[in-house]
Amino acid sequence: xxxxxxxxxxxxxxxxxxxxxxxxxxxxxxxxxxxxxxxxxxxxxxxxxxxxxxxxxxxxxxxxxxxxxxxxxxxxxxxxxxxxxxxxxxxxxxxxxxxxxxxxxxxxxxxxxxxxxxxxxxxxxxxxxxxxxxxxxxxxxxxxxxxxxxxxxxxxxxxxxxxxxxxxxxxxxxxxxxxxxxxxxxxxxxxxxxxxxxxxxxxxxxxxxxxxxxxxxxxxxxxxxxxxxxxxxxxxxxxxxxxxxxxxxxxxxxxxxxxxxxxxxxxxxxxxxxxxxxxxxxxxxxxxxxxxxxxxxxxxxxxxxxxxxxxxxxxxxxxxxxxxxxxxxxxxxxxxxxxxxxxxxxxxxxxxxxxxxxxxxxxxxxxxxxxxxxxxxxxxxxxxxxxxxxxxxxxxxxxxxxxxxxxxxxxxxxxxxxxxxxxxxxxxxxxxxxxxxxxxxxxxxxxxxxxxxxxxxxxxxxxxxx
Length: 466
Prior knowledge:
Blueprint (H helix, E strand, L loop, with lengths): L15 E2 L6 E2 L14 E5 L19 E8 L4 E3 L4 H5 L9 E10 L19 E3 L3 E7 L11 E5 L19 E8 L4 E3 L4 H5 L9 E10 L19 E3 L3 E7 L11 E4 L20 E8 L4 E3 L4 H5 L9 E10 L19 E3 L3 E6 L11 E3 L21 E8 L4 E3 L4 H5 L9 E10 L19 E3 L3 E5 L1
Parallel strand pairs: 3-8, 9-14, 15-20, 21-26
Antiparallel strand pairs: 1-2, 4-5, 4-6, 6-7, 6-8, 10-11, 10-12, 12-13, 12-14, 16-17, 16-18, 18-19, 18-20, 22-23, 22-24, 24-25, 24-26
């Protein structure tokens, strides 16, 4: 600051005698007094900035007068002679920095009052008033903030951001962070990084937040919770935004369709008609196929991929189809792992069973048999089934040599109770049938060639009736 300079050229009491001994002349002692108004703060933004309301001291003394505009080092930038001239100075054109406005009263012979000179070097009979400050600020620039983005799960556990850094070159007298929703509605105005890191985003519910950095000058309007950041008014700048995704806890919901039952017979078996829950939640998704112990056999990512799985190739057994919704931290979702050991943020739906039946009647042994139709009962014996035969249900089937079903004795005992003499002359064939529920065509009068469902017929044993 330039100290007030006061120079008395003539010592007080110095009297200059004139030719008239009765006339005493005393030199004028300049006194600029106190000027009022301001201080002023402008933003250098290309818009002219003028001062107003500055008033000089009515008791100021000095033959000559002018205003002096200096920088904060005292270098003279301008000498507007009147208040009107001062009020016509565009301080925006001076760029960023600080100006000082002084009022100067002086007598003839003043030296150093020139643009480019320094007010500290004035010489002569003069007095400078107090100064009024004109702050010329750079336009606010929030710069670029770094950190994030962040993704949280709304699960009742507090979620905080961290690692956000502001731009060291940001400009603006005032500062704050601004938290908005994705439409710009202001949810919070944490003034510092510490305050920002104390915000619990779990409490905001499911949705998306944006974090901004705001640099601004006094007079900003609209920076209030409930207002919209798009409606801010004043001298300000908003940085880029950092996204905070607030996701609902994964929920796979209920899947529908099935259950499915297939026969492992070399024919391709595909599921269809499975539908996922439209209200399912989770960033990522996949289907999971396990065995009945939870071991993961496949992870078809889409419904189309699931419907392309050939369950016949998995052999006999039971598969379970699940729907999985999960976040990026999921672990354990790999073939050969067990779905019971999944880790991370996820949810599995209910399961749909796929039963893969396999039937094998094996080899029937015993016979052949030859009987004479003579009115004496004729019974078979010694027929044995294959110990490795497979199939939920079983029966023997007796047909003629054309396959027409003559009887269906369910057990060996029942088979050995059949009197083949009563069938008359001809040839019978004895078969062993293993089958699953849903078999069709296994009825007397039907033909064994027309059986339908999941089944297997053994070799036949011939019974010749002469």
